[in-house]
Amino acid sequence: MDDQRTPQTPHAPPSIRLADTALHSALLQLRGHLSIVHHIHGRVRLRLAASALGQSQALATVRALGTQLAMPAAIRQISVNAAARSVLIEYDPQRLPDSFWPQLLQAPADQALALLQQHLAP
Asked: How many domains does the chain have?
């Protein structure tokens, strides 16, 4: 009897699958260009590096952060000042630990995605 099953294709492990949301994608794309400027409990200000200014995709992604993306429950508000290359994120500290932001920016890509999926589930 012939095996009529569809051939199995290898899938990426869950830790490196594509981002679940537009916010995940934006943060993953930008994280190499972002640094923490100021951080208090429930609020973090990120700065977009000047090196990203020549990349139109990075600028479009920053602008989208403040306007077009659905926010998970842990994120209260995102404000973008494109002229200052600044992103202010207000978050629920009961849902998102303060350590999340430095970990997100410093972790390898697969770990950063895992952090996003764990803490910023849609």
From this structure: 1
